[in-house]
Batch of 3 targets.
Target 1
Amino acid sequence: MYVAQPIEWTDKGVVMLDQRRLPGEEVSYTYTDYREVAKAIREMVIRGAPAIGVAAAMGAALGVQHSSASSIEALRTEFTQICDTLAKTRPTAVDLFWALERMKRRFEELAQSGADLASIRKAMIAEAKTVHAEKVATDEAIGRFGAQFMPKEGQVMTQCNAGALATAGIGTALGVIRVAFEQGHKLHVLVPETRPYLQGARLTAWELYRGGIPLTLITDNMVGHFLKSGKVGAIVTGADRIAANGDTANKIGTYQIAVLAKENSVPFYIAAPISTFDLSIPDGEHIPIEERPAEEVTHIQGIRIAPDVPAAHPAFDVTPNRYIRAIFAERGVATAPYIDSLRKLAAAPAVSAAR
Ligand code: MRU
């Protein structure tokens, strides 16, 4: 089945598919400067929490690879600057900070082991590639855990794009749907378009169509209508950050879907890797919500659709844990009380990357 490849490390640099131009055009760019990678994350060439993490790891490796530092000390100073630049791109997806922390840890391990500059450069590239390989493995594990909760047949709903484009693996929420579909579940996916950035209409619809999974695209304001019909068996979405109590930030609009799901007795699930857990914050009140430009609301792909008035664009909302039936991760399935189950999953043995 077709799996999109949003990012790849190559000998020429980091190659990214420009998601802003999908589905109309499939255009890729090759980046050799970490500052360009930071810009690509900020401007949504690449998006989706785990894919942002992979991009940050590769950006950090790129920075080290192209640094002209001639001592470990100079490289360390430059590396701090590289990580700071990559960190200041998108604030909500914790995978970004997770990936940078991991690259920093690896750098210090190497620096303290007495490795020379050439070996550090090589090993940092290897670490970024491992982060990518792990995303592939974790998505597959999440998919297997989550597929059991999908109906044997009928409609399921998602939100935004939590597919291959968003993770650099097979996807989290779409990974669950994909694995269930491959196991023989006869699923039909309802895809809300996900205004204002249209990740549902542009990206999820494209991925499902390319993968041969039946879908119906709906506008966001049709969600309640379809959930009330009694013909939706489950909802599964991704996450950008999951607090210790299970409160979950995901694409704007997810909260209202979860509330409507509860009202209509439709199970609402989250699928996300453990790198998306932020157990350092007690609840969703502590999750920083990215504010994006108002033009993304007043315009669609450069075309003005509203008068020149103020517009708001919080890019994410927080779904309180009470609306979430279960969270699928690569080490198992968490259910309420999340304060215990998420900690247990985070402490369980890691899924290693298939190399
Ligand atoms: O603004 P985006 O497109 O980066 O937002 C993406 C989402 O909200 C996804 O649902 C989330 O990152 C999970 S991706 C597996």
Target 2
Amino acid sequence: MIPSSKSADKRHPTPDFDAWLASLRSHFEPRLASALDRLLVDTPAELQDAIRYAALDGGKRLRPALVFLGSLEGRPWPDLDDPAHESLWPAAIAVELIHVYSLVHDDMPCMDDDDLRRGRPTLHRAFDEATAVLAGDAMQALAFATLADARTDEAMRLDWIRQLASGSGPAGMVGGQAIDLSLAGNREASDIATLADLHDRKTGALIRAALAMGGRWSGLSPRQAGQVDLFGRLLGRAFQIQDDILDVTGSAEALGKTPGKDLAADKCSYVTVAGLDRARRELDETVRRAHAALWELGTLGTDSHALSSCLDFVIHRQH
Ligand code: IPE
Ligand code: IPE
Ligand code: MG
Ligand code: MG
Ligand code: MG
């Protein structure tokens, strides 16, 4: 479970982002729950339970937030009560379903072998391994079904499907996960450039897809979209460097997942390969470049306050 917003407020120097993200969650949770009610008709009961267990009531919901932030609609924040935004929710739901499927598979014994996720037993622990494989498979299919049924014009639906397929697929998240596993136990063969590529794929690609889906919805110019994409790559890298740092500095209570896993599994993370100080320096440099990308975006007549706050949230997050 995510800690209460009260305690998060104390830790994060981003109270405006915290408040907006909390509001996004309060809009998102009932929409995801009712989407699953529709999508899981005619699904075996245990599989339904497993999917709801993994997908509902947990997580920061950062990727759905990025769908809205990528639209660059709203000064300074996208207005979540605006009925005009209604057609964007299917994109937010689809991205989160892919993310949850990636977490379920990432935790399995054949990958990271984790017992704890979002403050409770991982899906394969609460159910069994075969159910976890199948629930992940199902959530991937449900994500694309959600996009196919979205009430948008056909060209946008197709673009969304392409963006999500490419962000989550073998050149994106799945490819990153494959590299992550293949480098385990081989830290000497890894350097900062390898790590950047690994992070860009396993984490950055889905984050970029979320932003791009929002940008497609609001019809950004190619230059704006390109600049948001550059920012997204750096945001994704910063997100995963902070994840690597939290793996050694965080507690199970705060993280909702078991710390110390990267070293124990001999994974190639920024910390295990380069050390904590170097990881922090790389994070600072990534953030500097991300701010430069936002400054450029500003020259295109865009208010980047929300994206900038999101970046601050990502690097100061404690879970
Ligand atoms: C965890 O993502 C997986 C990584 C890409 C590091 P999050 O930290 O966004 O996890 P939830 O969705 O909040 O649980
Ligand atoms: C996972 O990275 C990224 C995914 C694609 C799920 P990690 O393995 O570092 O994520 P955590 O630490 O288990 O959340
Ligand atoms: Mg992993
Ligand atoms: Mg993991
Ligand atoms: Mg991690």
Target 3
Amino acid sequence: MRHVLPGSNASRGMALGRARLVQPSRYLVDTRPLAEEEVDTELEKLHRALDTARQELRELRGKLHGALAREVNEFIDAHSLLLDDQELLRGLDDLVRVGHYRPGAALKKQRDRLAAVFEAMDDPYLRSRKEDVDQVINRVISALQRQTSREERKLAARVGEILIADTIAPADMAHLAGNGLLGVVASSGSPYSHSAILARSLDLPMLVGVRDALATIHDDDLILLDAERAEAVVHPTAQDLARYRAWQREAQLEGRRLASLANAPTRTRDGTDIRLLANAETPTDIAMARARGADGVGLYRTEFLFLRHKGLPSEDEQFIAYRDLVLGMGGLPVTIRTLDLGADKADAAGLALRGEENPALGVRGVRLSLRYPAVFTTQIRAILRAACYGPVRVLVPMITQPDELIAVRTLFKLARQDLKRENIDLPEKLQLGAMIEVPAAAINVRSLLEHADFLAIGTNDLAQYVLASDRGNDALDNIYNPLQPALLRLISYVITSGRRAGKPVSLCGEIGGDTKFTAMLLALGLCEFSMHSSQLLHVRDRIAALNHKGLRRLAPAILRCRTHEEAEDLLSRITC
Ligand code: PEP
Ligand code: MG
């Protein structure tokens, strides 16, 4: 039956597909005892599920031909025999009727009994038949759990898969996306996690915090993942499917309309020009950034190179990646961020320290780079060499205090001297910037500005550290909110301080690409937004509808808000 599971939108879009569960155990069954009056209906359900399993086996046999059929038919015969085994069936009926077991729990109990019998056999062949028991029982349990009609199953067979999991690691997501994954429904996680960032960059719809997903969705259920409404519809109706088709048509039209903005300037309604930069890592992101008229790359996360690599990428490997980025942007400025490993980003080479009690507050970002000067210098040399091919600026993550920036500058100076001695071409002096994502850096930004050529506000981490709320923990949704007054005041302070010092300030956290926050950021004086390439046209479109002067006048009122609800309310009333 149709049911709707609410969650949080982590990556926009809609997808229709079959559920593929990643469940810690296949035998999650309801163990509460049955009431007497439920026995008959539950027995009926059990026998329907047994019939479905038999029918599935017959269908499977019909699809097989030739040598494969001969080989597999043997297993199908064994499974069919088991499904008709009188002892098994009587045992199941007794468990439900007399023991008041629910059908799923009865199947599990019978499975355990049979498995014990097979396991006790001396003959290894017979012993291995335990697997058949498992497979048969599994088939019945999933038929039991699946309240799916045959029509729906036929439709489901023609569509791709939607992953239903507790969480998904970024690497797994990248792999599955390459293999036709249509979307992700996660029962935990947050829109600010790195997996969510990756889903957005892959244009893969994703919901997080869908609490009951694993308990109520079953393998092969037809799912309509609707990230626009932040919900997953299980067993969608014809009406839902019509909505999905309407969304597809609209998305196509909207896509065409937005595409016409690719070469337009980014300008508010009253004529203020805004710079839109891209957060780009892959060649596809870079191509998309160009195609959508980005003014440059505002954030290139170099750690992705390390995360994909089995060991440490060599200087040449890094140089080639950075050079291709620079060449790919065809003369537009690119911002290469030095390694930000640590916390939830652990590399295979083992640079990121393991076993830290509090990794988010541990040796991550520039702290880690400075701990391994040889590794860091390899990266610096690669950046310097790549910078001969076009304009590059260097951004340093997790800066807490000025001496870190001074140390990085010194390492750049030393690397330049070495490269010069080796007669390798060197670029002009590179601009060195600080990520503002640690509260101390934001509060003490004026001292940092004495050493930084530019700033980039990383609101994903800044919010996490200001609010003491893990950016990946959905239980903290009500606290981890980009409109928290403390965060807004810090963002405003950093922007104003940068402007006073005459140094550029951009913002490259996820809110930079979220049109919900565009007006608020313009109001606080932000003139440089960096976001995933897929968001560029949406944000340009939003900016074109806004009046800059009117918004700037709202800044004092925004900064006076006492709660995020007040700020939300204020923003919802913006008409300019
Ligand atoms: C941020 O913290 O806002 C940011 C852009 O960096 P990352 O998401 O890579 O930690
Ligand atoms: Mg960060």
